[in-house]
Amino acid sequence: MADEPMLAEQNGAIPVAETARPFYQAVGNEEAVFKAAHRQGLSLLLKGPTGCGKTRFVEAMAHDLGRPLITVACHDDLTTADLVGRYLLRGSETVWVDGPLTRAVREGAICYLDEVVEARQDTTVVLHPLADHRRQLPIERLGVTLDAAPGFGLVVSYNPGYQSVLKDLKDSTRQRMVAIEFGFPATEVEEKIVVYEAGVNPATAAELVRLAHAIRRLETGGLREVASTRVLIAAGRLIVEGLSMREAARAAITGPLTDDGAVGRSLNEMIDVYLPELDGAR
Ligand SMILES: Nc1ncnc2c1ncn2[C@@H]1O[C@H](COP(=O)(O)OP(=O)(O)OP(=O)(O)O)[C@@H](O)[C@H]1O
Ligand SMILES: [Mg+2]
């Protein structure tokens, strides 16, 4: 099928052993929960708003556990065959090519289904026997059922703010998964993250985080998502490039957060209140 090359690229396993640990600052006990669940062969549900560190967390955990990480960005056209595999024509031969989920099951990798809410239910049904105590992947087209290799882990993430397909996951399956809820990090932790990721100085990071707190406290509708750690980092990167703090925040925070003129203006007013006019002292 036409989309195969894209999948193959996007789902390439990342070799873990020789790479440095991805920078991840623990926010609570999430690392202990993840590792305990993994040792017990329990699947994980990561819930949290966009840009709060779910993907980075999984990368760090895969590294710590010494498992390859196979990530699948889910979308509504994703089919079971995209996950499990399919027969492809190679020259005059028909060959079976494993999908990312099957590779993870065979290799004992961590399979991370990012934004699993985007996938349709007829696609995610294949996860049920894998997510629970059976840890098996039935491959109908091959007429086999694979037992997951030791070290295999299934991790799915979703944003509970969006419509959730997980409502449609059987309760029996959901209850065999362990959930970790992510929020935004505590002030000092988030400041450290912004300093590390954007390269700004601590004072600048503190001002950006203070602005984010103010935006997160806004009770007005208007915003689908509040300012995430990710947008603060983007603002910090613009500041490092020489933009003023206000310019950087308008471009990296207001713009991505809203298209609504009035909401945008009130965000910009908050930016003017919370950030100095001067360049972020670098
Ligand atoms: N606890 C953290 N430690 C280190 N970096 C973090 C942390 N939280 C957020 N970040 C930073 O924020 C950025 C966004 O995080 P990430 O991509 O993991 O978010 P996400 O929760 O997966 O978002 P989405 O739901 O949109 O996929 C990361 O690139 C990283 O720089
Ligand atoms: Mg992510």
UniProtKB/TrEMBL annotation:
Keywords: ATP-binding, Nucleotide-binding. SUPFAM superfamilies: P-loop containing nucleoside triphosphate hydrolases. GO terms for molecular function: ATP binding; ATP hydrolysis activity. Pfam families: AAA_5, CbbQ_C. InterPro entries: ATPase_dyneun-rel_AAA, CbbQ/NirQ/NorQ/GpvN, CbbQ_C, P-loop_NTPase. Signal peptide: none annotated. Residues 44-177 form the ATPase dynein-related AAA domain. The keyword ATP-binding applies. Residues 190-272 form the CbbQ/NirQ/NorQ C-terminal domain. It comes from the Bacteria. Belongs to the CbbQ/NirQ/NorQ/GpvN family. This is MoxR-like ATPase. The lineage of its organism: Bacteria, Bacillati, Actinomycetota, Actinomycetes, Mycobacteriales.
